[in-house]
Amino acid sequence: MQTIQANGYEIYFNENGYEILNKHLNEYNYSSIFILVDSNTNEKCLLRFLSFLATEKNIEIIEIEAGESEKNITTCVEIWSILTDLGADRKSVLINLGGGVITDIGGFVASTFKRGVDFINIPTSLLAMVDASIGGKNGVDLGNLKNQIGVISVPKLVLVDTDYLNTLPQNEMRSGLAEMLKHGLIADAAYWSAFKDLSKTDFADFDGLVHRSIEIKNNIVLQDPTENGIRKALNFGHTLGHAIESYCLENEDKKTLLHGEAIAIGMIMESFISWQTNLLSETDYNEIKEVITSIFDRVFFDENDLQPIIDLLIHDKKNEYGKIQFALLDGIGAIKINQKADNDLITKSFLDYNS
Q: How much is the pLDDT for 16?
């Protein structure tokens, strides 16, 4: 697959990417190499990665527990302390080998340790490949509030090796698929159409679908690296999706949702709002709802859930002057940012989703 030029770094693919990685490590003459993994990628991905690594530099492995609950400042302090104890300096490099939690927290740790050391992302989940590892957003959650603390800082390079997808359970693959669906809905109607009937999708060309998804996100980020304008388009489904994800995290009687599972719900609801505000046709809305619900399990929200979720919307990072801002579909394949919706309409979106 062709290399993608991002904002100050490149995105390389599969085995060719390891040649570039090794060349980079040798040219930059790092004092030491640290690899951040979680318990899953340590078991399932690390040996493959190390088999491609050609360096005589000292390598240290730092492992954290897997899961969104680890993406917090306490874990950062633990990693910073380990880096310090192991003698990391400004010429060290941190390689983040894992899913979205690892690339998010690893990028944040590297960007703040000694005021910034180099980092490299090796995403191992579909979600991390098409979304989390791309674009320079790094950070952690504040309690159950998603991505409230962070920086925008780009890696030295990203290496996407789709062989790591063979280690994923089906629910993790679906979680990443949500972001791919989003990319089609906001920017490429033809790409969206490729997912209308997954039974007819040629997964022999899945690498091509991954590459195109990364391309769509990267093209948007190139126009607006710091999210002052069009990059907000990438938050379609995330305003409600993040609130739902946070609510389910903090309520023991609710099933904890993977990021993509929550975003899938958010995309249906925000598509409903797009229809109700005359940006999207009813036909397109019904198509979106049908496709997404055919892939993702339904989650029921009762009346007591709605207000607490709506209350969480105020923490969304797109908000300005205390006003909730949505990125809404302007037809399939186009987007309008900085859109408003009142609480009554948001409530209707939940009721429609339940129906």
A: 92
CATH number of the structural domain spanning residue 88: 3.40.50.1970
Mean pLDDT throughout 137-158?
95
Residue 331 structural domain: 170-354
Q: The pTM is what?
A: 0.94
195 with 283, same domain: the answer is yes
Write the pLDDT tens digit of every residue in 99-134: 999 999 999 999 999 999 999 999 999 999 999 999
Q: Are residues 124 and 230 in the same domain?
A: no
- Both 56 and 195 in one domain: the answer is no
Please identify, among 133, 167, 201, the residue that sits at the C-terminal boundary of a domain.
167
**Given phi > 0 = left and psi -120 to 50 = alpha, else beta, which region is 55?**
beta
Query: Within this chain, do residues 128 and 218 fall inside the same structural domain, yes or no?
Result: no
d(CA 118, CA 126): 24
- Of 167, 190, 218, which residue sits at a domain end? 167
Is the pLDDT at 321 greater than 70? The verdict is no
Domain tally, the chain: 2
Q: Does one domain contain both 55 and 114?
A: yes
- HEC sequence for the chain: CCCEECCCCEEEEHHHHHHHHHHHHHHHCCCEEEEEEEHHHHHHCHHHHHHHCCCCCCEEEEEECCCHHHCCHHHHHHHHHHHHHCCCCCCEEEEEEECHHHHHHHHHHHHHHHHCCEEEEEECCHHHHHHHCCCCEEEEEECCEEEEEEEECCCCEEEECHHHHHHCCHHHHHHHHHHHHHHHHHHCHHHHHCCCCHHHCCHHHHHHHHHHHHHHHHHHHHHCCCCCCHHHHHHCCHHHHHHHHHHHHHCCCCCCCCHHHHHHHHHHHHHHHHHHCCCCCHHHHHHHHHHHHHHCCCCCCCHHHHHHHHHHHHHCCCCECCECCEEEECCCCCEEEEECCCHHHHHHHHHHHHC
Q: What is the pLDDT of residues 250-306, one digit of tens each?
A: 888 899 999 999 999 999 999 999 999 999 999 999 999 999 999 999 999 999 999
Q: What's the CATH number where 206 sits?
A: 1.20.1090.10
